[in-house]
Automatic annotation (TrEMBL):
PANTHER family in the record: MUDR FAMILY TRANSPOSASE (PTHR31973:SF195), POLYPROTEIN, PUTATIVE-RELATED (PTHR31973)
Source species taxonomy: Eukaryota, Viridiplantae, Streptophyta, Embryophyta, Tracheophyta
Ranges of Polar residues composition bias in the record: 244-253
Domain of life: Eukaryota
Species of provenance: Sesamum calycinum
Protein name per UniProt: Transposase
Basic and acidic residues: compositionally biased ranges: 224-237
Region (Disordered): 215-253
Amino acid sequence: MCLISDRHGGLIKAVREGPDFVSPHGVHRYCLRHVCSNFNSTIKNVVLKDLCWQAGSEYQSRKFNRIMDEIKKQDVKAFAYLDAINKEKWTASHDGGWRCGILTTNMSECINGVLKGARRLPVSALVEITLERTVHYFHVRAIKGQKMLQNNQLWTDFACKMFISWQQKAVEHTVTKYSHAQQSASVVTRRQVGNYWDDPNFQLVHDPTIRTVTRPGRNQTTRIHNEMDWRQTRARQEAQQQQGDSSVQENVP
């Protein structure tokens, strides 16, 4: 199990003192977005904050080291701040594959937003019905799995349906094998026969009032915004302009 959270002291202490939550049974990782937010609160530089995100989201060590060198070149204190954090906790390049590509806690935040309407419901009833539905979910699928094994079915019903559909389409393809060792081949698909609707014998009239039903733009959020939601476009544009001016000066003979 991989637990991704912010660096709250209570969470870190609970994970550290948990006797069963140790590798390979469980690992603790930090949310990269919260790491960048705390980093920006201390350093107060949006450009370095972007570099922090790039460093944490890189999957190759050489690219991570290159970005960290750039951070060190711009601000030694910023580099020391990130270097003091265990790289396994916040970087994808040193994670070891535990995160499975998930860098932030956005999934849990989405669930929290969905459950806003259930906050006033009784907790005991919610826990009970959640447990019952979870047990029912696994019980029904365990029976289905046993039937599939008894029928010597290697794949699920959904996978078999997709394989059959692809097999029917592949009948019309022409395959020329080039190399069995390299698994290379040429596939020629059949030309579309043009199975489309005929032109209607009436005039199509567009109704411009259809799109006025929905309001333009994003829906207004109800959660409390913090530093991670503030737009800092101007600071990024100024940094890009400074980089452009410096590159022009370097190219001037």
